[in-house]
């Protein structure tokens, strides 16, 4: 016998309120708050409250409830030193940092510290919440400017100190960054010490790099690392563009404690950088766009702000023109690098000056009173061989070194010497200028001549990228080729350039726009025409750093 389907009788559903008639009964499920009250009473074994009789208005689920004030601690009479562990929730192995902080640090400043310490880029919203109410349901909020503009109730983070939340070891504070990816952090007070005269914020220890921005959260990031580490992973093809853009091939998940602390130091140096640039408080001289300057979008093929690019040889004016149009946050970001590059130098070490000018001085010495060029306009082969023996003692150039056209480094050197005004071509003869003759005998004169003429680029994009190079090198952050390219990719994008070449921000080829200035700084770092085999730190050596700083000063 085949079983036949029999429809079930209709279920009596709660009636919808009749807009023309009486309101629904109070015990209707539409009244969620009344239902919740009855449920609590039933679970507790109490008598279920009897609904009042007569017509009543249903309670609103979205009714604004008055929140409790923030549970703030009384700060100590004298600031103390707090050792705080910041852990990124759900990370395994944990991503964490141990920070030494003054107890009176304001929370808006603490936000900047966490961003640098973990490696975030501050491109999303954030929020602090208390340990007793991590979701912010019961107490008033710790407000950011955005939250205040949205009408949230609470106290501005800039008016709150860390020691109003953390006082005893074990006390907690929560911090969320990027509400889309949902990066939740837990701050735990590990140790309280007497305050020290040095009020600097320091990162004492930590583990694992912070995730990149916009990867979808911790689960997505863990999956991305797994795919990057296994070439045969089934998702490899799908994720390969992201892996390349984030430089995750061969990724070693170890933090650079020195780089983190240099970044924290730049937070303190930003004000000095803004003062040097004469920008005042960040945003005081903010340029709101082309209309504010009377520029027409249709009149420029370069980014609209290129029309305001200062082409003079005064670095302060050029940097001010570059940074005036960007936002407040970006101004402070760049000003930190400028402040780091403007650290006073008591006296230039003679060894660094001699090394920094070695390549160019030796080239000019070989010119003598002048070298007759070949019919094609190149140095004679004999001169090329002699120069390469002296300027490339380690023989890093593996191919034949007997023609200037084949050794492009020599061609780059000649172009730089001419651009610096130290030599010129006169009727088929390459001759030193008057400045070149006097400076080649004195490292100090050569140093001044080079510093006064950098950067060498003359196109709008090349000049701005070259100033960024001087800024990054002068700040001591050009610690490797890969990092330098990544920094210029990001920084040029912030300034508004669309250069191309891939990279995380689409400007991976920005580095190539400033190669003339990069070459001069590389020679200054090593004292050689070519870096040693496998060497990529030439821009972080003293000669390069000090020359970049000298070039940035008026």
From TrEMBL:
Residues 83-242 form the Plasmid pRiA4b Orf3-like domain. Residues 1-27 are annotated as: Disordered. Coiled coil: none annotated. Residues 7-26 have a biased composition (Pro residues). This is Plasmid pRiA4b ORF-3 family protein. The lineage of its organism: Bacteria, Bacillati, Actinomycetota, Actinomycetes, Micrococcales.
């Amino acid at each position: 016998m085949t079983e036949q389907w029999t429809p079930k009788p209709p279920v009596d559903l709660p009636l919808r309120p009749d807009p023309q008639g009486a309101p629904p009964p109070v015990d209707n499920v539409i009244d969620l708050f009344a239902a919740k009250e009855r449920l609590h009473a039933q679970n507790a074994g109490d008598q279920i409250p009897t609904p009042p009789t007569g017509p009543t208005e249903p309670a609103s689920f979205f009714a604004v409830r008055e929140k409790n004030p923030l549970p703030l601690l009384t700060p100590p009479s004298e600031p103390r030193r707090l050792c705080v562990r910041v852990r990124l929730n759900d990370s395994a192995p944990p991503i964490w940092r141990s920070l030494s902080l003054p107890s009176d640090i304001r929370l808006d400043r603490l936000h900047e510290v966490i961003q640098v310490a973990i490696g975030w880029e501050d491109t999303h919203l954030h929020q602090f919440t208390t340990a007793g109410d991590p979701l912010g349901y019961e107490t008033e909020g710790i407000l950011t400017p955005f939250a205040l503009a949205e009408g949230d109730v609470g106290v501005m983070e800039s008016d709150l100190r860390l020691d109003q939340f953390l006082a005893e070891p074990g006390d907690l504070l929560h911090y969320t960054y990027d509400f889309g990816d949902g990066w939740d952090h837990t701050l735990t007070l590990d140790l309280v010490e007497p305050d020290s005269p040095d009020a600097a914020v320091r990162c004492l220890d930590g583990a694992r790099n912070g995730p990149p921005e916009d990867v979808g959260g911790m689960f997505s990031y863990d999956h991305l690392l797994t795919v990057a580490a296994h070439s045969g992973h089934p998702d490899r093809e799908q994720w390969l563009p992201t892996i390349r853009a984030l430089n995750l091939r061969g990724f070693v998940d170890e933090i650079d404690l020195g780089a983190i602390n240099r970044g924290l130091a730049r937070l303190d140096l930003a004000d000095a950088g803004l003062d040097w640039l004469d920008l005042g408080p960040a945003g005081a001289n903010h340029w709101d766009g082309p209309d504010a300057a009377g520029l027409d979008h249709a009149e420029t093929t370069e980014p609209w702000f290129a029309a305001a690019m200062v082409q003079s040889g005064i670095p302060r004016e050029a940097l001010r023109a570059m940074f005036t149009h960007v936002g407040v946050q970006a101004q402070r970001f760049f000003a930190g690098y400028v402040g780091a590059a403007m650290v006073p130098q008591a006296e230039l070490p003679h060894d660094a000056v001699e090394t920094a000018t070695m390549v160019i001085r030796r080239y000019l010495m070989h010119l003598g009173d002048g070298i007759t060029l070949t019919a094609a306009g190149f140095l004679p082969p004999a001169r090329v061989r002699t120069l390469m023996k002296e300027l490339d003692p380690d023989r890093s150039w593996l191919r034949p070194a007997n023609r200037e056209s084949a050794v492009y480094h020599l061609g780059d050197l000649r172009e730089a010497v001419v651009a610096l005004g130290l030599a010129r071509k006169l009727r088929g003869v390459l001759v030193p200028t008057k400045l070149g003759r006097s400076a080649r005998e004195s490292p100090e004169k050569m140093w001044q001549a080079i510093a006064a003429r950098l950067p060498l680029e003359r196109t709008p994009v090349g000049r701005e990228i070259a100033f960024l190079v001087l800024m990054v090198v002068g700040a001591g952050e050009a610690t490797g080729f890969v990092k330098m390219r990544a920094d210029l990719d990001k920084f040029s994008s912030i300034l508004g350039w669309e250069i191309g070449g891939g990279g995380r921000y689409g400007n991976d080829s920005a580095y190539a726009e400033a190669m003339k200035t990069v070459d001069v700084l590389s020679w200054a770092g090593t004292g050689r025409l070519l870096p040693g085999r496998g060497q990529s730190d030439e821009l972080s050596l003293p000669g390069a750093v000090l020359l970049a700083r000298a070039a940035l000063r008026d």
